[in-house]
Amino acid sequence: MRIGLLGTGNVARALAQGWTTAGHDVLLGSRHPQERKDIGLAVAGLSETAAHAEVLVNATPGNVSVELLRSIGAPALAGTLLIDVGVGLSDDFTELSHPNSSLAEEIQRAFPDTPVVKTLCTMDSTAMIAPDGLDGPSTVFLSGDDAEAKRTTGRLLTDLGWPPSSQLDIGGITTARGQEHFALLFMGIAGGLGDHTFNIKVVPRASS
Question: Closest Cα to residue 114, out of 164, 61, 78?
Answer without folding.
Answer: 78
